[in-house]
Design a protein that fits this description.
- This protein has 13 helices and 8 strands.
- With about 300 residues, the protein is of the alpha/beta class.
- The protein has a single domain, classed as P-loop containing nucleotide triphosphate hydrolases (Rossmann fold).
- The protein is elongated.
Length: about 300
C-alpha cells in the first residue's frame, strides 16, 4: 500500500531526527493530498515566528506566518508557535478579546508562558487544536487534513506527554479542558497518525524504534516508520555475492565499492526494522535535488 493511502487521518504528525527528510516528506504529502482535491494545511512547529521556515523552502514559497495562507489550490501553510497558541487560548478563555490582546503584550507574561514547565508545549497543542477546529464556510472543517512537521523527536514525545501531565496537575478549569481535548484527539487512531522518518543506517533505525516505543507508551498512534533515502540496489543476491568477491580480491579499491557497502548497510538496517517494528514501514528511494525540487521528485513515490 502507498504511504498516502496508509495514512488516512485528519492530523498527521511527521517526526524524526534532524536531517532525515521529514520536512520534505511533509511538503510532498501536503502537495499529494491537495492534488487529490483534499483541503490541506501544512504546519511547521517553530519556536518563534522569526525562525527561518524549512517547510517554506520545501514547499517553494517565500515564507510562512502564524496565520494560514493559501499557497496553491487546496493547500495552505502556517507556522505553529507557542505564542500563537497562548494568544488563542487567552482569547477563548477571557470574556473580552481585548484583554487577551493586552495580556499577550506583557513581556512578563510572555516570558512566564515560555519558561513555565509544559506551558510552551501546551501553546503548541492548543494552536494545533485551534487549527483543526477552524470552520469551512461551506460546512465542515476548513482543512480536511492537517500535516504537522515536528522539529525534533523530543517535540513529538512532548505532544504525547503534555496532556497527561496537565491533567495530573490541574484539577479543573479551561487548561484542564484543553488537556482533555488534546489527549482525546492525539490518542484517537481515527483522527491522528504519526509518521516516524528515519534513514537506512543501523543507529537511526534503532532510534526510530525507540521513538515508536515511546509514542506507543503514551498512546499516540504510529501509522508507519518511513525509511527515507534508501539507495537503489540493482543486484540480486547472487550478483551481490559475486561483486563482493571481486571487491575482496581487489582489496576494495574499485570504483563503486563505497556505494556497495552503503547498500549493504541499508539492507542490514532494514532487516532490523522488519524484525523489531510493530508499525508498518515504508521504504522511499533517494531522490535528486533539494528544497522544493526534492519535494516534487518525491511525489511519484507516494
Amino acid at each position: 500500500m502507498s504511504l498516502a493511502r496508509l495514512v488516512q487521518r485528519r492530523l498527521i504528525i511527521v517526526t524524526g531526527k534532524g536531517g532525515v527528510g521529514k520536512t520534505t516528506l511533509t511538503a510532498a504529502l501536503a502537495r499529494h493530498y491537495a492534488e487529490s482535491r483534499r483541503r490541506v494545511l501544512a504546519a511547521e512547529i517553530v519556536p518563534t515566528a522569526e525562525t527561518p521556515s524549512q517547510l517554506a523552502i520545501a514547499l517553494g514559497v517565500r515564507g510562512l506566518t502564524e496565520e494560514p495562507q493559501r499557497i496553491a489550490p487546496n493547500l495552505s501553510a502556517v507556522l505553529v508557535t507557542p505564542t500563537a497558541g497562548h494568544h488563542r487560548f487567552l482569547q477563548a478563555s477571557l470574556p473580552i478579546k481585548l484583554l487577551a490582546d493586552t495580556a499577550m503584550r506583557s513581556q512578563a507574561l510572555r516570558k512566564f508562558l515560555s519558561a513555565a514547565p509544559g506551558f510552551s508545549d501546551m501553546g503548541v497543542m492548543y494552536r494545533m487544536l485551534d487549527l483543526l477546529r477552524l470552520p469551512n464556510p461551506a460546512g465542515g472543517h476548513a482543512y480536511e487534513i492537517v500535516l504537522l512537521d515536528s522539529p525534533a523527536t523530543g517535540h513529538a514525545l512532548a505532544l504525547a506527554q503534555i496532556p497527561e501531565f496537565l491533567i495530573r496537575v490541574i484539577p479543573a478549569g479551561p487548561i484542564r479542558r484543553v488537556a482533555e481535548e488534546g489527549l482525546a484527539v492525539l490518542t484517537d487512531p481515527r483522527i491522528t497518525g504519526t509518521l516516524i522518518v528515519t534513514l537506512p543506517e543501523l543507529l537511526p533505525v534503532t532510534e526510530a524504534l525507540e521513538l515508536q516505543e515511546g509514542l506507543t507508551k503514551h498512546r499516540l498512534p504510529v501509522s508507519a516508520i518511513v525509511v527515507n533515502r534508501v539507495p537503489n540496489d540493482p543486484f540480486s543476491k547472487e550478483e551481490r555475492a559475486a561483486v563482493s568477491e571481486v571487491l575482496s580480491a581487489q582489496g576494495g579499491l574499485v570504483l563503486g565499492a563505497r556505494e556497495l557497502r552503503r547498500i549493504e548497510r541499508a539492507q542490514a538496517a532494514l532487516a532490523v526494522l522488519r524484525e523489531r517494528a510493530t508499525a508498518d514501514h515504508v521504504v522511499l528511494s533517494e531522490v535528486e535535488g533539494a528544497g522544493s525540487h526534492a519535494t516534487l521528485a518525491l511525489l511519484p513515490a507516494l
